[in-house]
Fold this protein.
Amino acid sequence: MKNQINIKNKKARFEYHLLETFVAGIVLSGTEIKSIRNNKASILEAYCVFDKGEVWIRNMYINAYENSSFYNHKPRGDRKLLLNKKEIAKIEKFLKDKGNTLIPVKMFITDKGWAKMEIACAKGKKLHDKRHDLKDKDDKREMDRAMKNR
């Protein structure tokens, strides 16, 4: 199976300092995975929570599958993430500190056909950090233009 599904959270690197990333499986129903394979999903507004020893993703949007019958999934329902015990313990310890959060960065389909989510332990950026990133991006763009015109 070709790995062509690549749903990204483009705001994540701008809004947060990404400290550590994990790759987790997602528990999905049949119509959800079909919608993801049609690239009808979004993780822009999604976030992860820790509840009773499990990690859940909330507010992830998966559009209803157009060829399904009356039985369909909730577009913004909570979905469980599959991680091993060491990773869950590390995430739980990280989330105890104030200002730390767990955000989805990327969703993809593996070669075996499994839906996976790359999540990151993150700390929010201040306004001056965001301005610095924009300035660096503009400087890099100017240098690339200057090198191209040489």
Remarks:
- Helices lie at 12-15, 30-37, 85-95, 127-149.
